[in-house]
Write a structure and sequence with these properties.
single chain, 131 residues, Four Helix Bundle (Hemerythrin (Met), subunit A)
């Protein structure tokens, strides 16, 4: 058996992304809006990590991941700028929900972002499949 650490790691991160975005539905059903935002962001973060790994790019932080994603995939036009906006909005909302006391998201924000987060992950899955 030939080991392929780059593809194995990319596949692992992609699996985490898909599992995490599926988990969001449970948080929506239960009205856990901040947790839903958190998990949507992390699902997208894992997907971006899978994409970067597939291209042999290693990062060590959330900001490094966002920077590499922007430079290598958004600025070059490989991924539509609207996808970057979704990722950035989820990052900002996750920061706010996780670190600001007495702040709660509402159903409207979560319901609006959930299909966008799923689309974001789908787009990355397709890019990885076609590489």
């Amino acid at each position: 058996m030939i080991e392929d650490p780059v593809n194995d790691y990319s596949a692992y991160r992609l699996k985490r992304a898909i599992e995490t975005i599926e988990e969001v539905e449970t948080h929506i059903v239960n009205g856990f809006w901040n947790t839903a935002i958190n998990r949507m962001y992390y699902a997208c973060f894992y997907a971006v990590g899978a994409l970067l790994a597939k291209y042999g790019i290693d990062t060590s932080s959330h900001s490094g991941t966002r920077l590499q994603f922007g430079q290598l995939f958004i600025k070059t036009g490989l991924i539509d700028r609207d996808m970057s906006k979704i990722y950035s909005e989820l990052f900002e909302k996750r920061q706010k929900g996780d670190y600001n006391d007495f702040f709660d998201f509402d159903e409207e924000a979560v319901i609006r972002l959930f299909p966008k987060a799923k689309l974001f992950i789908h787009e990355i899955v397709e890019i990885i499949k076609n590489k």
